[in-house]
Amino acid sequence: MALLLMHANATVTICHSKTRDLPETVRRADIVVAAMGKAGFVQADWIRPGATVIDVGTNKVTSPTEAESLLRNFPDRLEKFRAKGHVLIGDVHPDAGHTAGALSPVPGGVGPMTITMLMSNTVKAARLRRAPAASQAGAR
């Protein structure tokens, strides 16, 4: 993702969970792609108002304490957690939806796009592979 954005002339900052002053770095971003592997790691107050947030994480939360902390502002989702005993939460805290200009849904936000791009690249690769053979056959 970082390379694709850089090829489109975007300035990209790559961070990890131990990046110094991570909240401030995230607050400067127009686009945040979160792939940390920890439910609700990126806090809502880290997101600049209007920023686009792509939450790649899909974390199964089974702890009632953690679920109540993450979903305190989402009583419907908390009730579903209590009924099922688990809930899927992204790497971005659910409250970020109130700040972000756009937020990918979890689960299901990046999955369909990933599949689409894999299929597109597979077709491109097949066409490129056939092109040299077709041009050589015409030369004979």
List the helices and strands and how they pair.
Elements: H1 2-7, H2 22-27, E1 31-34, E2 52-55, E3 59-61, H3 64-70, H4 75-84, E4 87-89, E5 102-103, H5 111-139
Parallel strand pairs: 1-2, 2-5
Antiparallel strand pairs: 3-4
Share in helix = 40-55%
N- to C-terminal distance = 42 Å
Structural class: alpha/beta
Rg calculated over all Cα atoms: 20 Å
How is the main sheet built?
3 strands, parallel
Give the strand order, joined by hyphens, for the main sheet.
Answer: 1-2-5
Which sequence of SSEs, written as H and E, runs from N to C?
Answer: HHEEEHHEEH
If helices are DSSP runs of H or I spanning 4 or more residues, what is the number of helices? Answer: 5
Shape descriptor: globular
Count all strands and give the number.
5
Folded structure, characterized:
By secondary structure, the chain is of the alpha/beta class. Helix content is 41%, strand content 11%. The chain contains 5 helices and 5 strands; from the N terminus they run H-H-E-E-E-H-H-E-E-H. The protein has helices at residues 2-7, 22-27, 64-70, 75-84, 111-139, and strands at 31-34, 52-55, 59-61, 87-89, 102-103. It has a 3-stranded parallel sheet with strand order 1-2-5, with no helix packed on it. Strands 3-4 form a two-stranded antiparallel sheet. The radius of gyration is 20 Å and the shape is globular. 21% of the residues are buried.
